[in-house]
Each structure stands twice: as structure tokens, then as C-alpha cells.
Design brief:
single chain, alpha/beta, FAD/NAD(P)-binding domain, Polyamine Oxidase, Chain A, domain 2, 2 domains, seven-stranded mixed β-sheet, five-stranded parallel β-sheet, 13 helices, glycoprotein
């Protein structure tokens, strides 16, 4: 060997050792697979990108959706050229993640067709209307204002001023506690369990008792609970006041003022977040097995394909899926509450309600808890020139024979069966956020506390932070994206 080779060989040898030494090895980006393209899965992808400056932290994000469209339980139907929400339909003014999504994605906010105090309401017990607000066909503002004042007085007389005020206070206290989930990271920890997340905000006790028990303790009258509160819970969750207290409080919040939706459909929030998050989207591909292989997860789909993911996020309810987990996971049993949404273009039959003319039927027909009732609610979505579009919620499918009794004419009918939310029973039990003590995460564990578009986003944001905090090569905690001084700062960053 000549002198040149003798001099360069040690240099090459030590250069190779230097490059291979762990302290100088570059970490590989973590691949993340998300099952479900609803607001939960889309939000996880969004927050992972938002909170990780370092490209070496999160690499490819793949979303699997078994249906042909994104959005999960957010969907629309079209009747007579009009688009209506078929799934998650209303958002609260204090749903800050959803509000920020609309700004971030340049979506348009849509207000309800009716002013909050102008929608005529009737409470139906299966035989008669036990309560009805006044209604007027007049378009004159002074007449509408007079009717609104008269209805307010009627409401106060029936249910009591103090009882109604206590109901508002009950909801407001819950909302103020829920707002803690928007606080800055210096004040808000990353949560590894639903119980810990609820206890930190002071909401856990609401999930240990029924809504009925909570409202009795809050001083509401039995008439208000049996009628108006029950109407609201049956519309929003298809359940009675025997549901757990937190879900019931969220339901009551969904009947307040300032409610909104996204023009053209709420599903656009999920679609927009996915489009902005550099995601590899697989539509009409269902995952049938997830196996932990030591350093990664192997996901096998119904298309016969296999995928390797270092982090896997389940962002869809596991209750009615048949995913094979290896090793097996253990979560508390629960059942989903199915809500049947039936859309009808036609005209209601006033005789079914014991009335003589169509105009006497309230625009919103709510119901109390009774075995005689085949539906939870009927509401007018749109008034056409000669007929109307209605939306019916029911716990069981609406048969054609039943619809023919309720309607004098039907031009078009669309039926949708939603596995919409958990059937709530206090005290609630929770699946873990981390399903296997490694990197298998479950967004929908939080649904046993309350189910809505916003609670899914809140849970997803925590899951994204949880993932980043548990990666072997963690994101720098001093990253500006992982710090925010207060809730308004975080909102503007979105």
C-alpha cells in the first residue's frame, strides 16, 4: 500500500464512524395514519402541521376514509335544488375551533333561516299540543315584535322566570368551564385521559349524574324539565333527561341564540383542513386490521393493501366497526344512539295533529318522552311556492305508511340512518386516548363526555399535542407554534 492509501484509509474509516454515530444521525420523519375523515381526523392532521415547525417531526400524513366523501357525520342532502345539513348541523358562537376553521379556510357563515325568537314552537304529546307559541303570517316588523313579546310572556308564565334563569345559568357555567380548553399552553397541560381532561376543567362531575338530577338540584321546575328541556334533548341527542349531565348541558347550549353553520355545508371544514394539511387521502378504503410490529403499525385495508405507520390515530367511533387489533385493545362497551333523519318535500296533514288548517301547525314540532310518539321532532327547513321541505328526527325508521299518515302529500323523501352519538348513561366510562401505551390514539374517546363538531375538534387538538409530546424526538417545547400566551393568541394563529 502506498503512502497516500495509508494516510487516507484511517480518515475514511473515522469519517464513516462519525456519520453513523447516533448523536449525529438525522431522525426520520414520523409517518402518521388517521382512520376517519370527519372533523376529528381532519383536525388532528391540521393541528399536527400547525404545532410542528420541525419537518423532521411529522412526515407523511395519510387519511383513510371508508366512504366516497370526506366529512364523516357532517353531510348534506339536496331537495328541490336546495342544500340542507343532514348530519351535524348547528354551531355555537363559542365554538372557537369551528369559528377559526371558517376564517382560516375563507368559508362563509350561514345564519338560521329564522330569527331566534320568531320560530313558532309546539310541544306534542302524541295526542295534542300541550304548549304552542303564537304565530303570525304578517311580515310587518311591529307585528312580529308584538308576537315575540307575547310568546316570551307566555313562556315565562308557563315555566317560571326563576326556573328559566336557572336553566340559562346552568348552561353558562358549563360553557365557561369548557372555555378552559382554549387557554394557552402555559396554563393548559396535555391530557393522557378523558377523565383527566374533564377534571382539569371542572366538568367531570357532570358526567357522573343524569341531566335530570342536575337540573332538579339547580332548582328547575319539573314542568320545565319534562317539557321544554326534554324537547331539546330529544332534538339534539335523541335522548331523554336520563342522559348524563354534561352531554345534556351541551344539548341545551345548542338551543341558544347566535347559532350558525357553514354556507354550503359544514363538511367543508373537514375537506378544507385536509386540503391544507398536505395529506395523502384514501377514499373508499376501509382499514380492517391494525397490528403493532414493534417499531411501527401495519394497517391492512379492504383493498388488499398494507401500510406501515409509526403513529396511528383512530378518528371514528369504534362501536360499530370490525377492526381487528393485534394485540387486542380493551375499551368499555357502549352503544351508539341511532338518529333517523328523514327529509320530506310535501305538506303536513293538519288532521294528524287534530287541526283543521296547515297554517295552525307550528314550524317546529317538538315532543315529550312518550311511547306513543314515533318521532322526536318535525321542523320546516324551507317554504316553497306550493309546498315545503321538512326535516324529521326519529329513533326508529319512519315507514312510508307512517309518513303517509303525517303528510297529506309527499313529492320527495330522503331517509338517512346516523350512528350519531353515544347513548349516554351516567356515570360515564371512558376509553383511553392511548389505546395501547404506544402510539395508537383514539379521538372519539371524548365522545362519552359530549358529542358535537366542536368537542371532536377539542379532543383532536389534544390528541395532536399528545402525539407530539410523546414522540422519541419531540418537538422543541420552545417552538413558537407550541406556545401561546392566551386563548385569543391561539385563535389568531389558526
Amino acid at each position: 500500500m502506498n503512502n497516500h492509501h495509508r494516510q487516507t484509509a484511517p480518515f475514511v474509516f473515522f469519517s464513516i464512524l462519525f456519520l453513523l454515530h447516533p448523536s449525529h444521525a438525522q431522525p426520520h420523519p414520523h409517518t402518521v395514519c388517521i382512520i376517519g375523515s370527519g372533523i376529528g381526523g381532519a383536525s388532528v392532521a391540521h393541528f399536527l402541521r400547525l404545532y410542528s415547525d420541525d419537518p423532521q417531526s411529522i412526515g407523511q400524513i395519510t387519511i383513510f376514509e371508508r366512504n366516497g366523501v370526506v366529512g364523516g357525520r357532517m353531510a348534506t342532502v339536496t331537495i328541490a335544488g336546495e342544500t340542507f345539513e343532514a348530519g351535524g348541523s348547528i354551531l355555537h358562537p363559542k365554538n372557537y375551533h369551528a369559528s377559526n376553521y371558517t376564517d382560516y379556510l375563507n368559508l362563509q357563515v350561514k345564519k338560521p333561516n329564522h330569527a331566534d325568537d320568531s320560530l313558532s314552537l309546539g310541544i306534542w304529546d302524541g295526542h295534542k299540543f300541550i304548549y304552542r307559541t303564537l304565530n303570525s303570517n304578517s311580515k310587518l316588523p311591529i307585528i312580529q315584535r308584538f308576537v315575540s313579546i307575547a310568546n316570551s310572556i307566555k313562556l315565562l308564565v308557563r315555566y317560571g322566570v326563576f326556573s328559566l334563569l336557572r336553566m340559562d345559568s346552568f348552561v353558562e357555567v358549563m360553557l365557561n368551564k369548557f372555555l378552559r380548553y382554549y387557554e394557552g399552553f402555559e396554563a393548559r397541560p396535555v391530557f393522557e385521559s378523558v377523565e383527566g381532561m374533564l377534571k382539569w376543567a371542572g366538568l367531570y362531575n357532570l358526567t357522573t349524574r343524569t341531566l335530570g338530577d342536575e337540573l332538579v338540584e339547580a332548582g328547575l321546575s319539573s314542568l320545565l324539565i319534562q317539557e321544554l328541556v326534554t324537547v331539546i334533548t330529544r332534538i339534539n341527542y335523541g335522548q331523554s333527561v336520563n342522559m348524563s349531565g354534561l352531554a345534556g348541558a351541551v344539548s341545551l347550549a345548542g338551543s341558544g341564540g347566535g347559532l350558525w353553520s357553514v354556507e354550503g355545508g359544514n363538511w367543508q371544514m373537514a375537506a378544507g383542513l385536509i386540503n391544507r394539511s398536505d395529506v395523502d387521502l384514501h377514499l373508499q378504503e376501509e382499514i380492517e386490521s391494525i397490528s403493532y410490529m414493534g417499531d411501527f403499525y401495519e394497517l391492512n385495508s379492504t383493498k388488499g393493501k398494507s401500510y406501515s405507520c409509526q403513529v396511528t390515530v383512530v378518528a371514528t367511533p369504534l362501536d360499530e366497526l370490525d377492526i381487528l387489533f393485534n394485540p387486542r385493545i380493551s375499551i368499555p362497551p357502549r352503544k351508539l344512539q341511532h338518529t333517523h333523519a328523514t327529509f320530506v318535500r310535501g305538506l303536513l296533514n293538519p288532521g294528524y295533529f287534530g287541526l283543521k288548517v296547515l297554517s295552525d301547525i307550528p314550524e317546529l314540532v317538538g315532543t315529550i318522552e312518550s311511547d306513543d310518539l314515533p318521532f322526536s321532532s318535525i321542523s320546516i327547513l324551507k317554504q316553497h311556492e306550493k309546498d315545503m321541505t321538512y326535516k324529521i328526527f326519529s329513533r326508529e325508521p319512519m315507514t312510508d305508511a307512517l309518513l303517509d299518515d303525517i303528510f297529506s302529500s309527499r313529492v320527495e323523501t330522503i331517509k338517512i340512518n346516523w350512528g350519531a352519538y353515544p347513548h349516554y348513561e351516567a356515570p360515564e366510562r371512558y376509553a383511553p386516548f392511548i389505546l395501547d401505551n404506544n402510539h395508537l390514539y383514539y379521538v372519539n374517546a371524548f365522545e362519552n363526555a359530549a358529542s358535537s363538531m366542536e368537542t371532536s375538534a377539542v379532543s383532536a387538538e389534544n390528541i395532536a399535542r399528545l402525539i407530539l409530546s410523546r414522540l422519541p424526538d419531540k418537538v422543541d417545547k420552545n417552538s413558537p407554534n407550541l406556545k401561546s400566551g392566551d386563548s385569543s393568541d391561539m385563535h389568531s394563529e389558526l
